[in-house]
Amino acid sequence: MTTTAVITGGARGIGRAIAERLRAAGHELAIVDLSPDLEEVAAELGALAIRADVSSEAGVATVREALERSGRPVGVLVNNAGITRDAIVHKMTEEEFAAVIRVNLGSTYRMTEGLADLLVDGGTIVNLSSRAQLGNVGQFNYAMSKTGIIGLTRAHALALAPRLRVNAVAPGFIASAMTDKMPAEIRERVIASVPLARPGQPEDIANTVAWLASDESGYVTGQVLYVCGGRSFS
Predict the structure, then answer these.
(1) How, if at all, do strands 28-33 and 48-51 pair?
(2) What is the pLDDT of residues 10-37, one digit of tens each?
(3) Is residue 183 part of a domain?
(4) How many Cβ atoms are within 10 Å of 52's Cβ, its own excluded?
(5) Segments forming the whole domain that contains residue 166
(6) Tens digits of per-residue pLDDT, 56-82?
(7) 194 Cβ contact list (under 8 Å, min separation 6)
(8) HSE of 166 in the Cβ direction (CA atoms, 13 Å)?
C-alpha cells in the first residue's frame, strides 16, 4: 500500500530534501508550510499543499481536515518545522524565547497528538532535533526547544508503541542559504571543528529520515540519530 508522508516545513531547505527523498522511496507527499513557495514546490513534487501554522491547534486541525478530505492513508509524519530567534541570554526578549519554543517544540507536540490516530499501523514519526541541543552560544531558546523534542520523542515512542515508531534526527552544521551568509572566518572555524571536515548536506539528513521511515529500521524506536559529522562528541 502506498502511503502519504506528511512533512512540516517541507517547502524549503532540509524539509524539501526530505520530501524529495521520501517521494523517491515511493511515498505520496503532503507538504505543510507557510512559505510563499509552497504551492509551486508542491506542484513540482506532485504533493498535496497544506498552508497551516502547525504551532497552533487551529493549524493542526487544518492539516487533519485536508488529509481526511484527500482520503490518503498516512504512513509517515516528519516534524521538521522550526525557526531561530538567536540572542545572548540578557538580550533575548520574551517574544523571541516564546516563539521558538512554540514553533519548534509546540508544533512537534501538537502534530503528533493531533495526527497520530490517522497514521496506519506500522507507521513512523520522525522529529527533527539538533546537535545544538548540546548547547550553542546565543541559542539557548533553540537548544531548549530541541532538547524538549528529544524528551517528547522518547515519551511518544513509549506511548504509541507497538502501533507506531517514533525517532529523532539531530542535524549538525548543514550547508544552506543561511550558513552560506555567515562570515567566512566563522564558517571555516565551525567546519574545522567537524571531525569529517565538511558541512553536512540536506541530503544527509533526508537519507537518515528515509531510513527511519522505512522497514529497514523496523526495530528502532525512541532513538536520536546525530547526523553531524562527529561533532556531537568532538
Answers:
(1) parallel
(2) 999 999 999 999 999 999 999 999 999 9
(3) no
(4) 23
(5) 4-173+202-227
(6) 999 999 999 999 999 999 999 999 998
(7) 172, 173, 228, 229, 230, 231, 234
(8) 27
- pLDDT given for residue 132 in this prediction: 63
Q: Is 69 helix (H, G, I), strand (E, B) or coil?
A: helix
Q: How far apart are CA 127 and CA 149, in angstroms?
A: 7
Alpha-carbon gap, residue 174 to 203, rounded angstroms? 10
pLDDT at res. 53: 96
Radius of gyration of the chain (CA): 17
At 27, which CATH number?
Answer: 3.40.50.720
- The catalytic residues are 142
Identify the band that residue 230 occupies on the pLDDT scale cut at 50, 70 and 90.
confident
Q: What is the residue type of 47?
A: A
Q: How many domains does the chain have?
A: 1
Cα distances from 102 to residues 96, 134, 234, in angstroms, run 10, 20, 31
Alpha helices (H) along 30-135: 38-45, 57-70, 94-100, 107-115
Please give the single-letter amino acid code of residue 22: L
- Of 58 and 186, the one with more pLDDT: 58
Is residue 87 predicted with pLDDT exceeding 70? no
